[in-house]
Amino acid sequence: MPHSTDMQASSPPRAVKDEPMEDEAAMPAHVANPAVDDDAEMEQTEETATATASQGDKEIKKDVKLQDLFDDDDDSDIEVDDSIFTPTNVANLKASDPEIMRQFYQRLFPWRLLFQWLNHSPTPTNDFGNREFAFTLQNDAYLRYQSFATADLLRKDVLRLMPSRFEIGPVYSANPRDRKQLGKTSAFRPLAKELCFDIDLTDYDDVRTCCDKANICNKCWQFMTMAIKVVDAALREDYGFQHIMWVYSGRRGAHAWVCDKKVRSMDDQKRRAIAGYLEVVKGGAQSGKRVNLWRPLHPHLARSLDILKEHFQQDVLESQDPWDTTERAERLLGLLPDQTLRDSLRSKWDAAPGRSSMSKWADIDAIFKSGAASKKFDGKALLEAKQDIVLEYTYPRLDIEVSKKLNHLLKSPFVVHPGTGRVCVPIDLKALEDFDPLEVPTVQGLLAEIDAYQGAEGEEEKKGVADWEKTSLKPYIDQFRLFVNGIMKDEKATAVKREREDESMEF
Amino acid sequence: MLRHHDRVEPKRRNVVDHRKKQFASPQYKHAEYPHRLNFYIDAPTADITLEQFEQWAIDRLRVLGELEACSFRNKSPAETATHMKSILDKYLPLDSNSSASGKLALQRQKDHYSHFILRLAFASTEDLRRRFTRVESMLFRMRFHTDDVSERAAFVNGLNLDWWEAVSEEEKVQYAEELAAMLPVRKTIEDESWFKVDWERVPDLVEQRRVFLKQGKAFVPGREQQSMVVSEFTTRLEKQLELTARALPRLDEDDRLKPILTHLSKNFITPDASYMAGSTAPEGANITAANIDNLSQHFPACMSNLHRSLRRDGHLKHYGRLQYTLFLKGIGLNLEECLVFWRQGLRHKTDDEFNKEYRYNVRHAYGEVGGDSNRRGGGYSPFSCQKILTEHPPGPGEAHGCPYRHFNMENLATLVQSMGVNDRSVMQGIKEDKDGQKFHMACNRVFEHVHKTEIRKAKDQGVMTANQLETIVHPNEYFKRSYLLKNLAKETADVEMEG
Question: Is A46-276+399-454+462-500 in CATH node 3.30.70.100?
Fold first, then answer.
């Protein structure tokens, strides 16, 4: 069906193509504004606001014309244009709507912090300039090997192309835009990228009972909480990494960005080593028992087990109740290695249907103590089997491919998830247990908050209050700033040290 | 600037008389070989004849080729060692100092020179470099393992590796519990000597969780020293090979060594690549999207499983699609048919979704789109058993990989039964193969069982030579042979009917 692609390709660009001109008109206002430098945000002063408003007017006119041409076009288009600046209607728009995206990128996205985060210094360097960005455009086309010298240029291009999301790749040895000229030589190769982890709740579908596929709730988010605790502990204690940021991925998972200088330049082999070190639950649906560990347990696993034990009782046995039906209980029995024990448990549960998972878990020990297991199966073997089960149900399930490769791309923090409209915000580890993915601000909500703020303040709006400060995005951006400053401070310290050493060499 | 005309340019200042230098006889240091093992740090400098140059290289190549074959067959280190012993003795013997052999110096010289000759031959492309490093490291590891304990210690000390330090007594006490977890049951911490290194030095030990990690330092038990030395060997060799690659163009004008070197590297082609040559459809086979269901009776377990999963779920995850697409490409399904196959196979997807998310990947695999090298190379090669066995083990919801390796016995039994194996002894054999990690043996066992009448017939009639019936190490070979055998049977049956 080649036709369908053509249609796809031709309709959205209409909206996109119009952007640059209007945007050009809006840009000088920013550039001329001296306050820009002080804030993470590009300031949205009244000046720009009016500029945007007049754009809006232009667009309406344009659309009327277009509408004459396309009579059978569904009328969502008109709605979009009429309603842009009234808060109630913003909430009704889809998150990926170009107008929503424009306002988000223009008024809320922390460009400057993103730049500092990837650049590791306030003045532009190759760390940022040779970094690959990849855009997913409104028509779902995927644009790779974009690169930008500064935050402003990135922002400008994002506003021109209005991607529904964008991803961050590695720093290359040369500017990614020049890669074609460099040809096949080794002059163009990836040099550095943060070590990333991706955990996705869909990988827990066989152990969670509350939701499946892309759906999540607070019950199954607990799996993510445990996963973050375990992985974070390993990265900090075992490897000594310090700059680790966890980010909600916008729908059903979380990403980790490990940004230490030493980590960024690691080759694939080292990344693979860390990934393998952390991977415990192996194999697919066909492999049966998926946790098979050597004893004695490695210190990392012993620690993880300590962390996870408690969660297993509460968040798995109690809230997921994973073995409630006979069918599901069969899965538990399959993980117990002793036939005799299995048989006695099965008959007990058949006799009393509706026993909760909690009681069934306790039954294992009870039946075992009553002597209903074969002789060669001793207490130690039972304990080990039970440990394996706890790990199979709670241990983090990483999407390991993301971590293994230096040149893997990962969605940038603070972009909007097009499906849910939620912003990919950093997760505060100090309040990890309180993080509620369903409370994460949506882009529509944030835009409404700005307008509500302006409404409340009336005309006498205080100067120098950036748009993001008026919204519930503020705590997340503050947190990000803290994180970025930590990295920059560290890198500055090493740079100064090196300089001093250089100086002393000269004399 | 003219006033500088009397000054000697800095670059030339040191050249006193270049003519003298050109013909001065070089003062080469004659290489001495105090140890059996060699890190190959200094290049050889003495003269050897062209015949020696070629012969030594060929001998070493034979050893390396055999080693690689062992790894493709998934042999354990012990099996590899036994298998390699006779070959090493014949082509590249290397005796210990204590053996009092009179040929020590000669053997070690040959080892040294042949290594450096092959470096020249295998430095040219990244693929060759990677494989060369891999097998050379295997060879080094094997020799290191069999080396005399005291001589090995002397060798390691001679390396002057400064990046490890001993673990202090305080640390041993502080981390007693963690360290104990790293040891086999009946050993205590005191039995082992411990090293402390940056974890990045021992990535393979980290990956397998065989060391204790604390703040970026890995605590390595003494028996894992081998791994540290081997990884050092590998890293150094990798670096050296890249330098060699950069120096290679200097040989361009040479007409003595160049042909020998090219010839050597040509003899070292990957089994993966070698399959591509014969990847056309068997004669008379109707390879179309519509016929795949019918052909799937000839598929090995891995592909059969993928096919069934696709038919059952109407979907396969990324690596499953990749593995299966390349296999289909290998049996001779052309791109158009392959796109048709996937369009129909992914039955829950709309045309739109298919075009956006799947079409590109299929075309990429066929080399229709993508980078220059991908297009020129006609896309990826179909995966060999080696690749399927060792790379990307399947995760949750994924159906790729090798069932003999990645399934548990119960699920494997079900799958194999559905392929037509009901014989108890065959099943037992499969279980033993699986337990012994001889996955390709299990697969070949199934093949032989399913095709036993045809194989017998083919042998009797001499249609297929023993060569054509050797162990299968590629899924596409499995298909091809299965198809040929079954149709052979049909043909002869037809002939008999007529006659």
Answer: no
